[in-house]
Every structure is written in structure tokens, then in C-alpha cells.
Amino acid sequence: MFLCHWLALVALIPLTLSINPGVKVKLTAKGLEYGRQLGIASIQKKLKTIKVPDISGTQKVPTIGKVRYSLTNLQIVDVGLPESALDLIPGTGVRLSISKAFISLHGNWRVKYFRIIKDSGSFDLKVSDLTITTSIAIKSDETGRPTVNTVDCVAAVGSVSIKFHGGASWLYNLFKAFIDKALRNALEKQVCTLVADAVSDLNPQLKTLNVVAKVDQYAEIEYSMVSSPTVSKDSIELAMKGEFYNIGKHQEPPFSPAAFSLPPETNNMLYIGLSAFTANSAAFVYNTAGALSLYITDDMIPQGSPIRLNTKTFGTFIPQIAKRFPGLMMKLLVRTAKNPIITLEPNNVTVEATCMVTAYAIQSNATLSPLFVLNLEISVSARVFFSGMRLAGAVSLNKMDLTLATSYVGEFQVGALDSIFQMVLKVVVIPKLNIQLAKGYPLPTLGKMKLVNTQLLVLKDYMLIGTDVQFMG
Q: Signal peptide position in this chain (predicted)?
């Protein structure tokens, strides 16, 4: 479909408020060239559907009188669009120009004169130096998705050449002038109509743009535009909201996106900048939803570990636990106490989380007896990678710090529990978190879009994805 794969990314979606984007997308000249190739293939396919009506009439010929003629079964044999250009008009939009195009046709001719004399044959016709220039407007519909339509179109036929087969040679000149004029009118009208149809045919495809993309049962991410695209002489830059929300509840976080700028890279078709705001809005959403909590039981600890979640193990470090709750299994509740903070620095992603850990003894009747509550400060490093059309991650522990918040078993030295909680974080909490992070979250996509030659850089306050794109139909 003509420019389908790029026009969705340049939709003008006006908002009443102008805010900084969480995500920026830049389409480079290389990306526009790929779009031009796809568009020309689509227009060429459309032009092959041109229907030239039968042509008939009467022409008065000296010494012969009236000659009745007809041209029938005109069929498109070939269409060529050898030269085309897609230009950006800074501050305005897109213009497609096609030159030196040609259309080859084949048809039948028939004449009748002196009332009884008939003659017939076939002909081949070639329209050369066809030029097409069209401008495209991009707007938004009521759902916040883009729609496109042709603003203007001009088509002009350069020359028409005809080769007749069969019949008397004196008849050829009769047809040449007439066919030239008739074909010019018919083709020039249909070409622009078909180009407009090709543009209109994009709209069902544009509705596949994931303006709101579901991440999981807790979250969705919004990719609507927060301002009009910036069109320069060699690229189009888009500003998208790039914000996570709880599903069905769009609650704004207590922070706003900071301004950031994409670097002047041009090697890839597409560049996507994902700000720290986007990542932190995800942390806000999951914390608000209560998803950042985990009950840990002994069956989640590797069987070969000498450390068990029971009052015997903990009693080694806190003797009063073993005395007051002998022979009982334990359960830990780890939950975030406030929103985790994600920081992006060059080649480094860190997450700082403040958690509370509540330890319980499990009584024989399954009731839980609280033992203590710890404050747990965690710092992890994150590795970010691609999983299909989703951005995924994995974290590893940098450091942790324990302090006692509340004890129900008397005073004890918290430092003695460091080894236990290091193990719990490394073998239970972080692997569980990484399973979820590996599922990733969706990037802005359109139709059957595939990323190729993709690189990811972590920069100051944002991540930069440089990628080429393929569309699989």
C-alpha cells in the first residue's frame, strides 16, 4: 500500500495541551526511500487496473465518405514507473513525483465504409513520458489514529505511439490523431483517480497502529502524538506520549517527562528514543496496581540450599525465633514501599527500589504470626534487549541494604541476615522479576512490521533504538 508503512508515523493528532513526549521517533531519508519503493510498487499495481472504454465514431474521409470505426478490448499490457522521488516539504508534508512513466496497451480496431466494406485488425499502443505529481494530507480520526487523503494530483501524457496490425495502411492515419487525443483524456483522468484510491486504501491499514498497546493484565502503553510532527528537509520527527497506564484507568504519575533530543544519526531508516519517563511511568503503574509484591515460601528455595525458610534456620541468627516458634515453616512478603526509580546513564541502566520485607511464622492452623519487618534498599543493573517487536530486559543485583523497621521478637542484629536475603534476592526475587521483564513491552508498530539491523544505545536520560524495517505484506 502506498506509503502505508510510514504515513501512520506522521499523523497530525492535535491536542489541547502541549507536553514533552516520552517517546520520539525519527524517520530518516533512508526510511523515506524504503517507503517510496513500497509506494511505487503499490501505484504500479493500481495503474495496471486502468480500464480504457471502447472508442467508436464516424469520420468523413475524402473520396470515401463516412467511415465508421471502433476500438475495442483495450487492455493494459505493462506499466513502468522508472523514475520517482518522494520529497519532504519542511513544515508542510510529503510530495510524490513520478516521471518518464509508460503504459502499454493492446486492442482491436474495426472499420466499415461504403456500407458493405469492412476491415479489422489489432493495435499496440504505448503512452510515454507520463508524469504524476501528488500531495498527501495526513490527519487524525476520532480514535486518534491517522487518516490520509490526496490534496491534489496532476497527471500529464507526454506522447502516444501506435502500431497497427492488419487492414489497409491508409486507415492508420485516420486513427492516430483521434486515438492520441482520446487516450490522453481517458488516461489523465483515470491516473489521478487511481492514485487517490491507492491513498484511500491506506486507511484500513493505518488503523492497525497501536496507539494504545496492551502490555499485560496490569498495564497498557499509549503512543498517541502530543504535538504535530516536525518536518525538515531530510527527516520527520514525531513526539509520542510514551506513557504506561493501568488498564482502564489513566492516572497520571506524580512526575512529568523531561525534554530530550535525538542525535543527528542517519544510518538507519528509523530511530526511536525511549525516555526515562516511559520506564518510570511503568514502575508507577505496577506499583500502583500492587503488582510489585511477592510471597516467598520454602518451596521456592533450591532444594540443595542449606538455607531454608523455617524458624530453625532463622533461629541460628535470631535465637528468640527458634525458642518462641520452634519447628515452624516461614513465609516472607516482599513489596515495594514506593515507586522504584529507573535511571538512564550512558551504557548503564539502574533501578533503585525501596522495599519492605515482612517475615511470618506459619502456624499449624495456617495462620501467620509476624516476626519482623525489614526495610530493604535494593540497587540493580538492567540489561535491555529486543524480543521480536517488544523491548525486554533482565536485571542483576548490585547491592542491598537492610535495616530493622519493626520486630515482634525483640532486638537483633539485622546484619546477620544479609547472607539469607542476598540468597533470597538472587535465587527467587530477581529470577521471578526477570521472567516478567523478558516478556517485554510493545514498541509502536504498524501491521506486520519487522525490525532488522537493530542497535540499542543507553544514553543520558533515554535509550536510542536505531533500526531498519521490513514489512511482511
A: 1-18
